Write a sequence for this structure.
């Protein structure tokens, strides 16, 4: 039997991997796996000392299947992973090895994953074997795709070669989001092996990406918190402080684990509802402004600079912008900036806009409404025409550029009334810390309207547009999301919160 398979370029490996992923979703594949498991059940459960012919049969069985995998051995090993037979996969690979087989990098990578599935610790010989494969791969390829990087870092942590794992992560020039598992494995390794400073370094690096680390990294962090009782509260708070700093909302299952540990350590943690910014459990009003003067100033400077130098000219007519900037600079500061069109297109149309303006006028606020020209005629016929300044922009202009310029030119207490989440303004916030400051600013300066049953539209300056992990006295309030991919969701349901009350003696 000829086991030699030509070396294939890395791109093809990736294509093959996606090909496999597509196949795995098919019903036919599940049926095939069922038949494969039945046919080779003995070998899969007892994979030691299996005759060569049996493995050859298995290989041929897969090759002759309707799937005709590009790299048959990667396919076999991946099936062992899917069906949770790591030792069978390892034995299969040993059979290939004893037949002078030259594995492709995708087969090697899949083979390494099998070691990561093992519950029992690796023997000294196995560790050396795994390490030599990892080194071989990293020496052969100058750049690794994310899948390989994830596998290698996991294995290197497993065999205790964290310096090599760090090298891979530090060399990875692409977006760290793609090597989320690798970074998470490194975080886990450091916290589980008493390397707190390094653990924190990569925890922070991971929190700077939009998803943050995987759950298993949080699990290791929690174990680290529980190791020393007298440091538990401080360590939990450190994590909350980081969530707040980087504007990250954790997933529910992470918060549940942490809440269980906290409840066993003297905290009182319960799910809560936040209504009109007040926690139903501790009855405290959540902080309305998380930005200190220094943070606000930093955000203001960057936002104005970016908006004027880049954003405004990208999205609008420069003449219109110059006119607008002069207009604002002569009339600022405003207390309230209303996104006229956005509110107009809310449930109750012009009534919502009128209510909003009247609401703030009653409080003596100086109001700017930014609208488009087609609103002008309508507004000129209403009694609100003298209650605010109105600036009309062309239909093709991007309103939120105007909103932000007016808000940040006016000052720290100025609020914006808009439902727009201003996602496109993330361009100004490529720095994760600035991005978090922008989210905090939204949380405390941007409000929306609500429609009340029977009583029309009411401007509700208690509805926050963004939700942040935050502390009020001895209580941390933690909003959560359901699953990883929704961490960037800005609007959180009123009941998607936990109230973490700290023990009395550790405020
Ligand atoms: Zn509370």
């Amino acid at each position: 039997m000829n086991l030699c398979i030509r070396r294939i370029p890395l791109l093809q490996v990736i294509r093959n991997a996606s090909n496999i992923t597509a196949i795995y979703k098919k019903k036919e594949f599940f049926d095939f796996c069922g038949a494969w498991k039945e046919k080779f059940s003995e070998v899969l459960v007892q994979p030691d000392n299996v005759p060569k012919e049996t493995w050859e049969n298995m290989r041929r069985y897969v090759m002759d299947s309707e799937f005709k995998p590009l790299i048959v051995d990667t396919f076999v090993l991946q099936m062992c992973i899917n069906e949770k037979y790591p030792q069978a996969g390892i034995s299969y690979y040993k059979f290939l090895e004893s037949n002078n087989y030259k594995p492709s990098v995708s087969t090697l990578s899949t083979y390494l994953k099998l070691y990561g599935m093992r519950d029992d610790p690796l023997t000294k010989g196995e560790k050396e074997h795994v390490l030599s494969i990892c080194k071989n791969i990293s020496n052969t390829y100058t750049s690794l795709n994310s899948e390989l990087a994830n596998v290698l870092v996991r294995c290197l942590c497993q065999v205790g070669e964290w310096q090599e794992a760090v090298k891979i992560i530090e060399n990875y020039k692409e977006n760290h989001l793609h090597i989320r598992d690798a970074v998470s494995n490194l975080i886990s390794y450091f916290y589980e092996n008493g390397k707190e400073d390094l653990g924190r370094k990569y925890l922070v690096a991971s929190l700077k990406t939009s998803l943050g680390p995987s759950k298993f990294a949080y699990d290791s962090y929690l174990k680290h918190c529980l190791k020393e009782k007298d440091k538990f509260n401080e360590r939990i708070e450190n994590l909350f402080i980081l969530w707040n700093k980087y504007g990250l909302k954790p997933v529910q299952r992470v918060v549940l684990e942490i809440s269980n540990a906290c409840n066993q350590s003297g905290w009182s943690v319960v799910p809560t509802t936040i209504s009109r910014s007040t926690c139903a459990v501790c009855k405290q009003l959540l902080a309305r402004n998380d930005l200190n003067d220094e943070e606000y100033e930093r955000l203001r400077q960057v936002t104005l600079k970016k908006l004027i130098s880049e954003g405004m000219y990208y999205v609008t007519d420069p003449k219109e912008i110059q006119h607008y900037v002069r207009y604002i600079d002569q009339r600022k500061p405003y207390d309230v900036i209303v996104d006229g069109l956005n509110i107009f297109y809310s449930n109750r149309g012009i009534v919502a806009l009128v209510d909003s303006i009247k609401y703030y006028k009653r409080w003596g606020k100086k109001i700017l409404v930014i609208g488009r020209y087609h609103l002008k005629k309508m507004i000129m016929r209403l009694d609100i025409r003298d209650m605010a300044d109105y600036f009309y922009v062309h239909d093709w202009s991007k309103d939120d550029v105007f909103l932000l310029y007016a808000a940040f030119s006016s000052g720290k207490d100025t609020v914006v009334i808009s439902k727009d989440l201003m996602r496109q303004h993330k361009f100004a916030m490529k720095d994760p810390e600035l991005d978090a400051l922008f989210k905090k600013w939204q949380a405390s300066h941007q409000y929306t309207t609500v429609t009340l049953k029977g009583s029309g539209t009411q401007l509700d300056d208690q509805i926050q547009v963004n939700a942040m992990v935050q502390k009020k006295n001895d209580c941390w309030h933690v909003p959560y999301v359901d699953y990883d991919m929704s961490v960037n969701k800005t609007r959180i349901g009123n009941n998607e919160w936990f109230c973490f009350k700290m023990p009395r003696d550790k405020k």
The first helix runs from residue 10 to 24. Confidence is low (pLDDT under 50) at residues 1-18. The chain is about 55% helix and 10% strand.
